[in-house]
Amino acid sequence: MADVVPKSWKPKADMQRIHVHWTAGGHKANSTDKAAYHILIEGDGDLVRGDKSIAANAKGSGMKQASHTLNANTGAIGVSMCCMAGARESPFDPGKFPMTEKQWNKMIEVVADLAETYGIMVTPVTILTHAEVWPNLHIKQKNKWDIVRRAFDSSTVGHKEVGDVMRAEIAAVMDRDLPEIPVDEIPQEMKPPKYRVSGVWPSTLNFRDAPNGKRVGSLPERTVVERLGVVDAWWRVRTRQGFIGWVFSDFLKPV
Ligand SMILES: [Zn+2]
């Protein structure tokens, strides 16, 4: 996909996750925001670069990290929407600087770009909101409810609900640029099988662009994939989010 985030903001680094926040500030990025996050999205959709490089949060970088998530900053890119100062969770009041649909949509494009750049899969443990960090990663946070509400959409409420909508939208943006899958050309015997990643935990299964090719992502234990093709021990698979790539078949078990 085209660069949404400028290339110079995306240094080479080994990153595992993207955490999406709101700043609990106004619609413009201030110095506190820039210290805490890598990328800020203002109310009108403009992007502001944080003070710290994304590479600072890579494991063992030796640089001072952007400190956006309690005890979970290493390997994690912090993206934040500038909004929600003075907001209240219950009864819900978005305050004077509600999240705008424009900045939400820009956030989706930003995260899709980062996910592609850093080879991060769209899963609930790799691309998540701050409110999902505790339930999904089991790392305790302090009353963080970003993001359990979208001010412009009263029908989606809850950390899982908002997170799932976010990931579906991110995956859809990433899928836009993928080639069509010629399903009719797949022989019948290769159509149905679904497999589950098995036996890689606590590591993950490498997801490659070709048989034994470049690593473009990783599949966590228990990820379900469809098999699209076979070359020796390498299988071409499609994830539920629509990613297509190659994996080593020893770690796939029939569902
Ligand atoms: Zn947060």
Automatic annotation (TrEMBL):
Listed InterPro entries: Amidase/PGRP_sf, Amidase_domain, SH3-like_bac-type
Keyword Hydrolase: yes
Top-tier EC class: hydrolase
GO molecular function, one term: N-acetylmuramoyl-L-alanine amidase activity
Keywords tagged on the record: Hydrolase
Domain spans labelled SH3b: 203-253
Pfam families attached to this UniProt entry: Amidase_2, SH3_3
EC number, UniProt record: 3.5.1.28
N-acetylmuramoyl-L-alanine amidase domain boundaries: 14-142
Origin: domain of life: Bacteria
Entry keyword annotation includes Ion transport: no
CDD domains per the UniProt record, alphabetical: PGRP (cd06583)
TM annotation in the entry: none
Protein name: N-acetylmuramoyl-L-alanine amidase
Species this protein is from: Sedimentitalea xiamensis
